[in-house]
């Protein structure tokens, strides 16, 4: 029956329904994480220079908004995070960055100590917006001792900072990736 439908204009089969990875996510896609369905609401692209790119997806379950960051190095690396107020991190982070032009080596958030892992300058772009609208920024990534949790501090201008906190995900934690129905 499906051959008959395909020959005469029936619904086409999805070419790779079970082989999608988080790198395949795009606007409107739906996936499962932590026994909940999430929809991609926005796609952000990052250019780190030297042909190094990553993506971040603003996702929602209809009530909550999170960010899924995905980067392919030797393997897919992912973090699941939420924006947090910079002031919720112990210490005068913004002041130290302004005075020393770098953040502290360790920071404390919700009684957990995080260690500076990487400092990166890059460019940010929201997919679907003006292709020439790339914003320059700086980011400092911190991890706890077990590298289970991540905290990032971003600087978008002389006195413009954002922070996010989340956890490091394993590849199998994101599943059932489906495109938006056409």
Automatic annotation (TrEMBL):
InterPro entries named among the record's database cross-references: DUF4178
Residue ranges occupied by any DUF4178 domain in the UniProt entry: 27-169
Origin: domain of life: Bacteria
Protein name per the record: DUF4178 domain-containing protein
UniProt organism field: Croceimicrobium hydrocarbonivorans
Lineage: Bacteria, Pseudomonadati, Bacteroidota, Flavobacteriia, Flavobacteriales
